Amino acid sequence: MANSTVMETEGNTLFPLVLSIVAAAATGVLWAYANPIQLVPGVIQWRIFAFLPPLIGILLGWRSGFICGYLGTIIWSLLAGTFIPAHSLIVDGIMVGLTGLVPGLLFNPAKMVLDRNALLKIAATCLVVGFVMVLAVSASLAYLGIFPFWWAVGYLGLSDIVPMIVGTPLLIIPALKILKSAHPAGFKRF
Question: Are 59 and 179 in contact, with CB atoms under 8 Å apart?
């Protein structure tokens, strides 16, 4: 595959900042209302849009990825009625934010070729950061007495990690094409 189609310029960061906030709102709404596959009915759904924070992080920058994951988690938990202040604001929000931050730090499409090896590295990064997130969130839920640790690891892993390792590398190239058509002059990642 060729180099990415989005150039990184020295311009302002308003475009990726605004887009990351919009993506965070979309993430929260999609997680709350567009997860048709119930892993544990009424409790854990297969979060088919879990790829959004790492995708946004890679496309728009690590801060944008963190904003998408963190705010998306807060919006989702408020809409789904699962908001727990200590868990949602600290553990869940920060750890899901990291699923957008880490890939955004490691991968910049303006400075790399998106070939098969790059896409496999993106998938491997999503696997590792997703596993760390699932461990931390499961530990928090177990500490709060909500779910047993290993039970949470299994179901949250299926819920979040699978869509991240499949969706992020699969959608990165089409998303770059969309960004290029929306902002042909390029933008500075945030």
Answer: yes
Rounded mean pLDDT, 12-17? 79
Helices 62-80 and 93-106: angle between axes, nearest 10 degrees: 150
Alpha-carbon gap, residue 121 to 119, rounded angstroms: 5
> Nearest-CA neighbor of 97 among 147, 144, 132?
132
Is 4 within 8 Å of 107 (Cβ atoms)?
Answer: no
**CA distances, 18 to each of 22, 24, 119, 120 (Å):** 6, 10, 26, 29
In the chain, domain spans: 14-182
Q: What is the pTM of this model?
A: 0.90
Fold of 14-182: Arp2/3 complex 21 kDa subunit ARPC3 (1.10.1760)
Q: How confident is the model at residue 11 (pLDDT cuts 50, 70, 90)?
A: low
pLDDT in tens, 125-175: 999 999 999 999 999 999 999 989 999 999 999 999 999 999 999 999 999
